[in-house]
Amino acid sequence: MTDPAGRVVCLYDEQAEGWIADRGRALGGPGKSLDEVAALDRFVAALPVGARVLDVGCGSGWPMGAALLERGLHLTGVDASPRLIAHAARTLPTGEWIVGDMRTFDLGRVFDGVLVWHSLFHLNPGDQRVALGRILDHAAATSTVLLTEGGEAGVSLGQWRGERLYHASLGAAAYQAILGAAGFAPDKAATAPPHIFLR
Q: Which terms does the UniProt entry file under GO BP (predicted)?
């Protein structure tokens, strides 16, 4: 039987057009599971003007990357799906788009802000810890991280386009401990998920 966690990257690449259609170009607002507009506004408010932002697991670049570019930020997106990155490069040419695995990528530079939106939780718990180390290595000495944490610790399998879609969470306390060890503290003004961490 295919490992559903190991299948995620291939699934998104094979179904790239379906994902682009299903995700759409509009940010989710109030009434969605997470208010993306409010989360991005909080994130951007914590960044310097014209900040350099890394979007890990950026997918097609829509709608999160597009919204960051519209807000005047310098955006680099990394995703393991070549087809999704190709779409981002074609439709959002002012961004920088790189094919890379969040567990192994190394850009050799740091960023003022790091966005990890609905991507980390597709990895199994061990790989999440590896990926977080890689991701946080790309955070500047003073930086902001916006992370969707995936809820309570555990594993769940959803369904998308007829296939199992893997999700896992280490739990909020574990994420805070990992970020805390890297010098980040939760933004006390951000009382609702997703949480923002500041260094």
A: methylation
